[in-house]
Amino acid sequence: MNRINLLSQRLANQIAAGEVVERPASVAKELLENSLDAGADRIEIDLEQGGVKLLRVKDNGSGIVKDDLALALSRHATSKITNLEDLESIGSLGFRGEALASISSVSRLAMMSRSDSDEEDNGWKVQVEGQNMNAKVEPIAHPRGTTVEVRDLFFNTPARKKFLKTEKTEFTRIDEIVKRIALSRFDVQFSLQHNQRSIHKLLPAKSEQEQQRRVALVCGPAFVENSVYIDVERAGLRLWGWVSLPTFSRSQADLQCFYVNGRIIRDKLVTHAVKQAYRDVLFHGRHPAYVLYLELDPAIVDVNVHPTKHEVRFRDSRLVHDFLFSSLHKALAEVTPKDQMTGETSNPNIKIVDLPSSENKQAKAFVFQSPLSLQEASPPPYQVDPHSAGGSLASVQDQLAVLAKLSSDNEEVPPLGYAVAQIHGIYILAQNKEGLIIVDMHAAHERITYERMKLACENEELKMQPLLVPLSIAVSQAEADCAEEQQQVLLKLGIELERVSAEAIVIRQVPSILKDSNIEQMVRDVLSDVLEYGSSDRIQSHQDALLSTMACHGSVRANRHLTIPEMNALLRDMEATERSGQCNHGRPTWVYQSLDELDKLFLRGQ
Ligand code: ADP
Ligand code: MG
Predict the structure, then answer these.
(1) Could you give the CA distance from residue 12 to residue 524 in angstroms, rounded to a whole number?
(2) Are residues 192 and 253 in the same domain?
(3) How far apart are alpha carbons 55 and 25 in whole angstroms?
């Protein structure tokens, strides 16, 4: 064994750098955070060769006084906290006092700065050299603010350098960080240059509209057009931002930005709460997109849990989880067809909705959504069309009556309009004042039934209806065991049954909303679900899934003939039902195309 000796400053810093300086993007993050902490409202980022050759961040913040310059580059030196109490409610992004020391130990770093308090000076430059990282300060001309220049990252740590990817990849990662940070501070102007080429210039965004534009620039316009703006405040917690409508989901969890008091966070608790909020409405295996800001008292969140400060710990994690879940769940439930259609479609092209790939091709010519704000959302009027008699094609008379309504200025036409016909036994065609609506009647009915059952289940008043003739079905022994064990659970789902032999059960009552469906099939499906999901406490959490199965079987199947009044009633039900824009599996229940868009399809007026 060797004798023990004290590591040199540089080596100690290089070891610490292992945790925080993984690649150029981590350098960018630390420098940008420092500029924001210094109160800058204009930040310029300059890169060469993916930030490896040069990464320069210039800000117009407070600057650093001459006497502090050397300290700024030493480890355990910070202006952001002074004692343990400060650590318990951190308002700044940085506080560990090690970023600059770490970065300067693995690169050639120079910092130029001028603060307001050094009135006579033009500015100062600091660099460190040698194993002990001695600081050298010299005068230089610099405007108020700070510039940090990081050259030749990892030039002295070849092992780290080997892990760097191509210039393009490293650049993309920095770009990603810049964009995410830009979304955390709408009031700050950011510009990014790479190899002398200007990549972005994001002007300060003051109004909600300008903020929305920045979000569109960073996340793509489709995200903004297909999302809901929310702003909820409760018990000292505030959640605001944009969440995608379920019909705009992604195959990867790549468009998810979450900020806690302005800090970018990746947190399991947050991901879980959001996922749960979308559970009912998102197509299996798809991911929601969101840009969300959580604001809370800094004292109830611990930010000092990870060197890169990407994670936090909430003091009351249950409270935060519930708040996130319930706010988002409610927001998604409140999206009505009317919301989804308000506003003009700004994009002259037909928008492509990012749907699960199998659906993609059929549905992409249609627009589902446009920007909307929940505050403006009000439930649409629920009314049954007084016109139209039986038949699955509207009679000439009906059509005339509907046309009169559509063209009249004083008639309130419901958002999903009036049914015109049923086609291929699957779709309902309807028209409203502005265009054409196509409804997948099974998907729509399924959602309505499901929401009703959930509501009834919640209120424990799922009405049951005794069967005139109890239905006896042959099942496997395992299914019969399960039916017997889970009798109470099934009863809560509205199914009363009894085991009559080793391999037979008798059904006595079923939910009255499902009385007309194929009861035997439904009970079999429910039993197999119960079997698959195992123990009874897991059933509780899968109750929705069971209800969904039941709703699916209880809903109008394809090829069932619907009369025009039935179709209209379905449309009105959809308008009044929560989450009616998606079926239980997250597929859209309706699509809409405005007259303008129809005109474009036929090159009318061009
Ligand atoms: P931390 O941010 O955790 O305090 P850093 O090593 O990142 O640690 O920075 C050390 C100190 O240098 C900061 O506390 C701050 O006082 C000062 N500093 C760094 N960057 C800037 C800047 N862009 N403008 C003003 N002061 C800065
Ligand atoms: Mg810092």
Answers:
(1) 66
(2) no
(3) 9
Report the percent of the chain where pLDDT is more than 70.
86
> What is the Å distance from ligand 1's center to 161 Cα?
25
Residue 252 lies in a domain: yes
- Total domains in the chain come to 3
| Positions of E strands within 272-403 | 290-295, 301-302, 313-314, 372-373
CB atoms closer than 10 angstroms to residue 272: 13
Residue whose Cα lies nearest atom 17 of ligand 1: it is 72
- 479-533: pLDDT as tens digits: 899 899 888 878 877 889 999 999 999 999 987 766 766 788 778 877 876 676 5
Q: What is the mean pLDDT of the chain?
A: 83
Q: Are residues 245 and 151 in the same domain?
A: no
Does the residue 493 lie in any domain? Answer: yes
CA of 95 to the centre of ligand 2 (A): 7
Binding site membership of 146 for ligand 1 (Cβ less than 6 Å): yes
**Torsions phi, psi for 56 (to 5 deg):** -120, 130
- Cα–Cα distance for residue pair 70/73, rounded to 1 Å: 6
Please check whether residues 127 and 276 belong to one and the same domain. no
Domain co-membership, 106 together with 220: no
Give the model confidence (pLDDT) of 108-147 as tens digits: 999 999 998 877 779 999 999 888 889 999 999 999 999 9
188-203: per-residue pLDDT in tens?
Answer: 999 999 999 999 999 9
Q: Which residues pair with 137 in a beta bridge?
A: 126
For residue 247, name the pLDDT band (cuts at 50, 70, 90). confident
| 23 and 156 in a common domain | yes
Q: Ligand 1: distance of its center to the CA of 192 in Å?
A: 21
Does any ligand 1 atom lie closer than 6 A to the CB of residue 145?
Answer: no
Angstrom distances, CA of residue 57 to CA of 17, 154, 264, 518, 538: 19, 18, 19, 67, 52
Beta carbons within 10 angstroms of residue 594's beta carbon: 18
Would the pTM count as exceeding 0.85? no
Q: Are residues 182 and 328 in the same domain?
A: no
**Range(s) of the domain holding residue 507:** 445-606
264 near 386, Cβ under 8 Å?
no
